[in-house]
Design a protein that fits this description.
single chain; six-stranded parallel β-sheet; five-stranded parallel β-sheet; 13 strands; elongated; disulfide bond; signal
Length: 375
């Protein structure tokens, strides 16, 4: 009798925890940092509504290319580590092995909060514009109609909201929820930041980063720094005054600006400020003999060379540029200085927090000036 009850109990638990249906989406907002922020939210959302998350390829933009390039998720990251949190499959596997059976072309419906401007009236226009069109075209996906899910939202930590999703869109009738954009907020919700621990580099990226560190940082630790200073960033930072929560600023000032006010120097620090802060870090961490610089534009290698010529440090960068390898290297630095407003920095900071590694930000918190301080 006990054995029978145990078996029945296990069966009930199995049925209750069975994951039904799939979530598919286009990571169509911004570049990698933004996509990574929203990925954490999409992961939490999928778990909240008890559906397998289909891992989208990363949307990338190459110089001279008119259309976005879709790079498979596992080109950079380990899929298995995500399964420690929730069930996932790659988009490539889903379209080849699962979609033909449960999501045939005549049943493909795009989801959006409300209608989007485009060629078709009263539609999500899920393929209108770049990267939307190129993303779905990569998998030969066309949509037969649209579904507006407003006023529902993506807050995975609102149990009532998750129940509404499950009730309104049961997997028996809606096996696939295909979202026009990520079912997640930007920046990442504070409740989802901890999910970074499940996002780990694959062996290829990890081995390349360790090899670079081994070959270039012999006999000492290294300081990793991220400089955001391209022309698009310069323009974005002009909006600091009227955008107190600009991009990833919450990682410094808090989601309600409870930890301070966003300043221009936090977004776009002057060269002199950067050099002073690097010198302070070197003075504090005397075991550091190298500086690794990641940047979207000016790596300031010449500036550092001049400013630090009397210190026993060497400045390194990747050539040619490789943003994902930059991220993997920065995540292993003995110490890190990043940009408060940048979602690229935010990815590094989250990974380092998981590992318990120290970090700080340019010009934050604001330092009280000391005229006697030696720089």
């Amino acid at each position: 009798m006990i054995t029978i009850i145990t078996i029945l109990t296990l069966n009930v638990i199995s049925i209750a925890t069975k994951i039904d249906g799939y979530v598919v989406y286009c990571p169509c907002m911004g570049r990698f940092g933004n996509q990574a922020d929203q990925f954490l939210g999409a992961l939490a959302f999928s778990k909240g509504i008890n559906r397998t998350l289909v891992l989208p390829p990363w949307v990338e933009y190459r110089y001279g290319e008119m259309r976005s390039i879709q790079v498979p998720f596992d080109t950079y990251f380990n899929v298995n580590s995500l399964k420690d949190y929730h069930q996932v499959v790659t988009m490539e596997y889903f379209m080849k092995n699962i979609a033909p059976e449960i999501w045939p072309p005549h049943k493909r419906i795009s989801f959006c909060y409300t209608q989007r401007i485009g060629e078709i009236d009263n539609s999500c226009n899920a393929k209108s514009g770049n990267p939307f069109g190129p993303f779905w075209d990569t998998f030969n996906i066309d949509f037969v109609k649209s579904e507006f899910y407003g006023p529902l939202n993506y807050d995975a930590h609102n149990a009532n909201m998750m129940e509404l999703w499950r009730n309104n869109y049961p997997s028996s009738q809606w096996p696939v929820l295909a979202f026009t954009g990520a079912p997640a907020s930007f920046p990442v919700q504070s409740e989802n930041v901890h999910l970074q621990r499940y996002v780990t580099w694959n062996s290829d990226i990890l081995n390349k980063s360790k090899l670079f560190i081994k070959n270039n940082f012999k006999g000492g630790g290294f300081l990793g720094i991220h400089l955001r200073n391209g022309q698009d960033w310069v323009k974005a930072c002009q909006h600091v005054a009227d955008s107190p929560k600009l991009f990833a600023a919450a990682q410094c000032v808090g989601y309600k600006n409870e930890r301070g006010k966003l300043t221009s120097s936090m977004c776009l620090p002057q060269k002199s400020e950067i050099i002073k802060q690097v010198k302070r870090a070197l003075k504090k961490h005397k075991d550091i003999k190298y500086i690794f610089v990641a940047s979207d534009s000016n790596h300031m290698t010449e500036d550092f060379g001049i400013a630090l010529q009397y210190l026993d440090v060497s400045v390194q960068r990747l050539k040619p540029s490789n943003p994902h390898l930059d991220l993997a290297i920065l995540g292993q630095a003995n110490y890190f200085i990043g940009n408060c407003v940048s979602s690229f920095t935010a990815f590094v900071k989250r990974e380092r927090d998981v590992k318990g590694l120290p970090s700080e930000f340019w010009s934050f918190p604001e330092r009280k000036k000391n005229k006697h301080e030696e720089l």
